[in-house]
Design brief:
The complex is a heterodimer of chains A (325) and B (307). Chain A is mostly helical. Helices cover 73% and strands 0% of the residues of chain A. The two termini of chain A are 15 Å apart. In chain B, 75% of the residues lie in helices and 0% in strands. Classes of the chains: A mainly alpha (325), B mainly alpha (307). Chains A and B meet through helix 1, helix 5, helix 6, helix 9 and helix 11 of A and helix 5, helix 6, helix 9, helix 10 and helix 11 of B.
């Protein structure tokens, strides 16, 4: 329990540090200190409202406290160009990003774990010799480039998938759930998911492979062999279960990390997610929206770091944090 | 005890020299023993040569707008004898851009590698050796840097500070040093307990001398590993940032080419010769970094050897 609180505090402090860095970064931007929240695109009433809401006429340290208090309430100002509260824009795009990330990570990890275990089993064969450099190449490729190649071949050349967006023009849905489970949405989801999955499978695959190689030499595997279990049963029941542990932790970390990395893939496919929103906001100098999108990504990252810590503790019987043996 | 102390420095010197010679020999033999590391070094050498002789390999300036013999714009010419990879929609030689892009990649990669590994090494050395308050302060800063989302941070920084190669390298360095600092710190923690460091201490060597003369040489290989990894990260990051439109528009990089191809509909025209080669070049350079760091790891952390 102490460990849980400790990790929670650790991640919370890190998140606070990020919001503080962000606060000062956006106040050092070109223009007046007000520029972080107000520009001429907003109406006079909106400007006045924000001036009061964020205490922009007060000293810096008071502004900082007001900023934190507003953040806790989800108040992040008005987007300059969308002229809507930033939080609304974020809550609208966040589900698209989460769906993209979770779907592709799941596919990547299922594939990666199976292929990694298989390659470990095939240790020393020509298949392994050929596969490892190929997997390394997918890890080395820029994500957006994988997307560009898939787009050119599968969308423009063969015309199997739409080239961008999340729904066809003219589609109207009665509810968010209906939209997400519609065939049209899934059809648009295929290429971005495929791109991310190709990029992401390398990590679990290589991790699983090296863990399996390590675990296969441990005593409990030798023990299982001596008991006369079949090779297949040893691989699945004994080795794989233990080799999976770091992969599960990597999965949780991967959610947070790829939320940040998604930025480029969402741009390639014009996927209306939070990463693309960040890129558009920075390009348009829409400071409040850029700040909000960045914080949302940092928040997901912090939550997932915490989850990874917890998973690690829950799954590994050998890790006993602070408990006396 | 007294005579052992007396003997320590003299016994130490030849021992250290032997150790260094052995280290160099292992370093030199590494490429031959590990085919992956050899391939990695070969790829690096190839790209450095291309960058040096870019003007000879591709005499046409990469941004010059070219015309055909009849005075028409040489736009979207398919690959052929005159233009090995064809031309862009504005009549620029793609092959020339690809060759000159190696210079930008080299500049970004090397400068990021130097900054990342030197900051990481110094922070790791100081934190690991001095410990205490300095250590916890530096490691808290490292935690902070690691909790920033990588690409979004680079985008916000370059988007607002201005799109230049220097800012991209700066952003990459700000986020990557903690990884190397942490690993080097933990290595220093074990090194500082070694007998030869203890021996140097009792002979009255100053703390800084012990740190830079006795400990630092032993963590150099780790610095190299992180430098090789930083080269790849920096090149991919530069490409991503350029692709998103926040890159340095005055320099021709592989990321610039990809962005140019994407925004001028090269994908729907099926101009594969425009956008496939820059991606392959990036993959080659980054994979070379993986191979080299893998080779060094196997030489310096022999536990992994043969896996």
């Amino acid at each position: 329990m102490r460990f849980v609180l400790e990790r929670f505090a650790h991640n919370a402090v890190a998140l606070l540090a990020v919001t503080t860095i962000l606060f000062f970064m956006f106040r050092l931007m070109p223009g007046t200190p007000l520029a972080a929240y107000i520009n001429e695109n907003l109406s006079a009433e909106q400007q006045q409202l924000i001036l009061e809401q964020f205490g922009l006429d007060k000293p810096m340290w008071q502004q900082y406290l007001i900023y934190l208090a507003n953040l806790v309430r989800g108040e992040m100002g008005m987007s300059f160009f969308q002229k809507r509260p930033v939080i609304d824009v974020l809550l609208e795009t966040l589900p698209n990003s989460l769906i993209l990330t979770l779907t592709s990570l799941t596919i990547a990890y299922v594939f990666g774990v199976l292929a990694g275990a298989w390659l470990a089993w095939k240790r020393g064969s020509w298949v392994e010799g050929a596969a490892v450099p190929v997997v390394l190449a997918t890890r080395a490729a820029p994500e957006f480039w994988i997307g560009m190649v898939l787009l050119a071949v599968l969308s423009f050349n063969f015309g199997w998938f739409p080239s961008g967006g999340a729904s066809s023009p003219g589609m109207i849905y009665t509810s968010e759930w209906q939209r997400i489970f519609s065939l049209d949405y899934l059809h648009h989801l295929v290429l971005p998911v495929l791109t991310l999955a190709v990029y992401l499978q390398g990590l679990p695959l290589l991790l699983m492979r090296s863990n399996m190689l390590e675990v296969m030499h441990e005593e409990f595997v030798t023990m299982a062999r001596m008991k006369g279990f079949s090779e297949w049963r040893i691989v699945i029941r004994h080795a794989a279960r233990n080799a999976l542990l770091p992969v599960v932790t990597a999965f949780a970390l991967g959610i947070g990390l790829s939320m940040g990395g998604n930025v480029v893939v969402e741009t390639v496919f014009s996927w209306p997610g939070i990463g693309r929103m960040l890129v558009l906001a920075v390009a348009n100098l829409d400071y409040p929206l850029a700040q909000g999108a960045f914080l949302m990504i940092a928040l997901v990252l912090a939550i997932m770091n915490f989850v990874a810590d917890m998973l690690y503790m829950a799954l590994d019987p050998r890790v006993t944090h602070g408990r006396k043996a | 005890m007294a005579e052992r102390l007396e003997a320590a420095p003299r016994a130490l010197r030849p021992g250290r020299r032997v150790a260094i010679v052995a280290l160099l020999r292992r370093l030199a033999a590494m490429p031959l023993r590990d085919p992956f590391a050899f391939a990695g070094l070969l790829i690096y050498a190839l790209f450095v040569l291309v960058a040096i002789f870019a003007d000879q390999l591709a005499p046409v300036p990469p941004l010059e707008i070219l015309f055909t013999g009849t005075g028409k714009l040489a736009a979207n010419v398919p690959p052929g004898t005159e233009f090995p990879l064809g031309t862009t929609n504005l009549g620029r030689d793609i092959y020339a851009q690809l060759v000159h892009g190696s210079r930008s990649a080299l500049a970004v990669g090397l400068s990021a590698a130097i900054v990342v590994s030197s900051v990481g090494t110094i922070v790791g050395l100081v934190a690991g050796y001095f410990g205490g308050g300095v250590d916890s302060l530096l490691m808290r800063i490292a935690d902070m840097a690691l909790s920033l989302p990588f690409l979004p941070f680079v985008i916000v920084l370059t988007g607002f500070l201005g799109a230049s190669t220097t800012n991209i390298v700066l952003a990459v360095a700000l986020l990557l040093w903690p990884n190397s600092a942490r690993v080097i710190r933990s290595q220093v923690l074990t090194l500082r307990e070694r007998a030869y460091v203890e021996a140097a201490r009792v002979t009255g060597a100053s703390r800084w001398r012990i740190l830079f003369v006795h400990i630092a040489p032993n963590i150099m290989p780790l610095s190299f590993v992180y430098a090789a990894i930083a080269i790849g990260w920096a090149i991919i990051t530069e490409a991503s940032v350029s692709f998103l439109g926040f890159g340095d528009s005055t320099s021709v990089s592989w990321g610039y080419m990809l962005q140019d191809a994407f925004s001028s509909q090269a994908l729907s025209r099926g101009q594969y010769a425009w956008f496939v080669p820059p991606g392959l070049c990036i993959i080659l350079v980054v994979v070379a970094g993986f191979f080299i760091s893998r080779g060094y790891e196997e030489v310096f952390m022999p536990r992994l050897r043969g896996r």
